[in-house]
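Retry 2 of 3 after timeout on previous attempt. Resubmitting structure tokens to design endpoint.
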């Protein structure tokens, strides 16, 4: 018998806030506060990436996380300027602070093996852009719904996933 572990997207799926930027349609989805999604390691990031293909998304999910790595919002197919400058964008409906990001790219087919030079440059550029905004880019995860690939593990000599992660205590705990 085979069991496939999944990080469950909220059972009571909230409707996403819909936006139009020029001719580009995109949306923001907030997870249910009663069913938090925490990304403590690469395993959870990979599961979230596999679950992302079931969302109303075509190309990209930009995940916003707080310091405890709890998902505060998912930006579905955001325009390039929002994805690049998310720390400076005035995003409607984003009230919970975030300090970390995770980019999930949906692709028709994910190649295995080392990342290409193009992937390396893209990962490093987005990482630098997010750092300049005071954000930590955890990873760019590529998936086709079956295969998951981490650019942080493939491109970074010291990826965040190999660090010990102890979330800060909750206020009042």
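Retry 2 succeeded. Sequence:
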């Amino acid at each position: 018998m085979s069991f496939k572990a999944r990080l469950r997207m909220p059972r009571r799926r909230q409707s996403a806030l819909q936006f139009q930027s020029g001719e580009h349609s995109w949306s923001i989805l907030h997870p249910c506060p009663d069913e938090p999604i925490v990304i403590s390691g690469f395993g959870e990031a990979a599961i979230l990436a596999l679950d992302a293909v079931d969302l109303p998304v075509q190309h990209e999910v930009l995940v916003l996380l707080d310091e405890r790595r709890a998902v505060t919002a998912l930006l579905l197919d955001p325009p390039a300027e929002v994805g690049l400058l998310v720390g400076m964008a005035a995003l409607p409906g984003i009230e919970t602070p975030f300090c970390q990001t995770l980019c999930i790219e949906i692709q028709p087919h994910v190649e295995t093996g080392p990342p290409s030079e193009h992937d390396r440059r893209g990962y490093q550029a987005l990482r630098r852009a997010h750092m300049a905004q005071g954000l930590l880019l955890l990873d760019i995860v590529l998936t086709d719904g079956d295969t998951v690939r981490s650019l942080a593990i493939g491109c970074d000599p010291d990826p965040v996933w190999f660090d010990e992660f102890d979330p800060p205590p909750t206020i009042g705990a």
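Attempt log closed. The longest helix spans residues 117-132.
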